[in-house]
């Protein structure tokens, strides 16, 4: 298998500007080049205002670059129409945020199924079985019919992880996923990411301000003032 076959994400001379053509035009990302492979478990770090959120929005296909190209599974995405971008994002990218954004009126199981329901309508039995298997994988099978408000913050974050994985994504984007968790629960959530990365060939890009967390990733990408200033494997 070639190197390209192992590649999930590639950025080529990626730039992002806001207020283009106006006197206050500002370029936030300055020609980024980056590759993420299927087995990568990487941290994206950098000070506030460095462009991390902008970059994450571009990688998640929530926004478009001003120039350059973003390849997801070898496919150029900058000129894709909105429907194609939405479909690719929904099937191949999973998102986990600091705030889990669960729907409180739905059960844990239905929250996990939500991405499939949005894409396909009413889930079939195979989808429900997969959702239950993911809840079991995060240690919450017995809470399938419980609403999020009856669970702890750590349990809710684990539901959010199961939800992110229901589409079997090639890339998992995690934005400060342990920011609201205590130390022990954060370690448990981090180990879940590790396990899914190892067992499911799911690349993980984790945005964090926690140096302890980034130090345990296999690779640390440091973004400063819209430029990647280092991209180092763990010693």
What can you tell me about this protein's structure?
The strands form two sheets. Strands 6-7-8-3-9-10 form a six-stranded mixed β-sheet, sandwiched between helices. It contains eight helices and ten strands. The chain has 235 residues and is of the alpha/beta class. The two termini are 27 Å apart. It has a single domain (39-65, 82-233), classed as P-loop containing nucleotide triphosphate hydrolases (Rossmann fold, 3-Layer(aba) Sandwich). It has helices at residues 3-6, 52-59, 82-92, 108-120, 125-137, 153-165, 183-200, 211-215, and strands at residues 7-18, 26-37, 41-45, 67-72, 75-76, 93-97, 171-175, 203-207, 219-224, 227-233.
Q: State the CATH topology.
A: Rossmann fold
Helix content: 25-40%
Query: What is the CATH architecture annotation?
Result: 3-Layer(aba) Sandwich
Main sheet characteristics: 6 strands, mixed
Calculate the terminal CA-CA distance, rounded to whole Å.
27 Å
Model regions low in confidence, pLDDT < 50 over at least 5 residues: 1-5
CATH class reads: Alpha Beta
Strand arrangement across the biggest beta sheet: 6-7-8-3-9-10
What is the number of domains?
1
Instruction: Report the order of strands and helices.
Output: HEEEHEEHEHHHEHEHEE
